[in-house]
Amino acid sequence: MAKLGTAGLVFVTVFAGLLWCVHGQLEARTLFSQWKHEHNRRYKTDDEERARFATFQDNLLKIEKLNAEYSGTEFATNQFADMSGDEFRSKILMRPLPPPQHPRERYLRADGEVNDLPEAYNWVDHGAVTPIKDQGSAGSCWAFSTIENLEGQWFLAKHPLTNLSVEQVVDCDDNTDPKTGNADCGVFGGWPYLAFQYIKRVGGIEKEEDYPYCSGLGGEKGTCFPCPAPAYNASMCGPAVSYCNETESCGFRLDKSKFIPGLQVTDWAAIDTNETTIAVQLMKIGPLSVALNAVLLQFYHRGVFEPHFCDPKSLDHAVLLTGWGVEKTIFGEKKPYWIIKNSWGKKWGMDGYFYIKRGVGQCGINTQVATAILQKT
Ligand SMILES: *[C@@H]1O[C@H](CO)[C@@H](O)[C@H](O)[C@H]1NC(C)=O
Ligand SMILES: *[C@@H]1O[C@H](CO)[C@@H](O)[C@H](O)[C@H]1NC(C)=O
Ligand SMILES: *[C@@H]1O[C@H](CO)[C@@H](O)[C@H](O)[C@H]1NC(C)=O
Ligand SMILES: *[C@@H]1O[C@H](CO)[C@@H](O)[C@H](O)[C@H]1NC(C)=O
């Protein structure tokens, strides 16, 4: 090395750096091609291709940083790998809002029932959960969360497990809560507690096969362009979609004669933020609708999700709580987590599911827990 001198050293360093860059670029190109193939992605123009590749490269770096920062969680590329963080937030998540507070009498308590909780429990093992769905690029998570809670309630009322219609809720639910300014806004977001009230008001729900999901599904599966729900309120929801197709909308598609006989929502309940209470109620009631701040979930792959900072008062995603468990780390520590069903397809996360730290109000997961109450049959 001494013989090289300073100039030589600088040269070698620059050359190595350049090589590394070229190599990094090549590797990113290969990864991008593989990724496009796997996710069946094609871009309309070369400009778009270039821009998407640049975003993909940024995301590779982001993922590398996340993996270095969090030893207990693995992050990886997935269907969102060509989306910037801003695009992910605006297309997939909802506008972040604080958790609504409900009147005291809404909340279920769990006094004196906490002693017999098992270390782990999961409603998936008890047949109360349908397969993982994919919301596509629409802010319709809240309708999935609502419907999946209802599927569990229907099953636990001793009926066969049935896929219920998410699209009915996305297209038809125009419920609002003037006290909080919250509203159900189709592909622009909504709240499960308001959707339970909508299903109660309209008198039932169709099956998925009778009123299938289509919003936000581009490509092969076909997509649809439903018009906003009948009383869509633009001052609460923001401007409506710029294009819509009347025959793909609630007015044309809703068929009350296809409502599942006997399935009536009579009311809904909230569960307070105490995570022991949530576990007790989960076991007693069934899978529960929950919400969280999901900004850092974009590249989640596996493990217990526990970001250092994640605003619990800024909810932008609704999902289904199906169970809990405890992870034993190599140091013999026990890390309690919740098991959550997401609506981003089976390839995302752990076959569509994720774990999130339990007992610390992580990302607000305990702040908007709710369930429908069905008429007894
Ligand atoms: C529900 O839909 C899925 C496809 O998304 C299908 O595989 C499943 O058989 C359907 N029925 C039930 C009861 O899960
Ligand atoms: C829409 O919401 C605003 C704000 O809550 C309310 O003042 C207005 O009356 C609503 N419009 C309609 C047509 O319901
Ligand atoms: C509107 O939707 C119907 C039903 O899916 C479809 O047949 C029709 O081609 C659509 N119209 C337009 C203009 O896209
Ligand atoms: C949560 O509820 C349990 C059971 O009622 C109680 O023992 C515990 O102290 C509560 N935790 C908090 C943080 O209030």
From TrEMBL:
Keywords attached to this entry: Disulfide bond, Hydrolase, Protease, Signal, Thiol protease, Zymogen
Signal peptide boundaries: 1-24
Pfam families in the record: Inhibitor_I29, Peptidase_C1
GO CC annotation: extracellular space; lysosome
Record has RNA-binding as a keyword: no
GO terms under biological process: immune response; positive regulation of apoptotic signaling pathway; proteolysis involved in protein catabolic process
Domain Peptidase C1A papain C-terminal residue range list: 117-373
GO molecular function annotation: cysteine-type endopeptidase activator activity involved in apoptotic process; cysteine-type endopeptidase activity
Residue ranges of domain Cathepsin propeptide inhibitor in the record: 32-88
Top-level taxonomic group: Eukaryota
Full protein name: Cysteine proteinase 1-like
Native organism: Branchiostoma floridae (Florida lancelet)
Protein's gene: LOC118418160
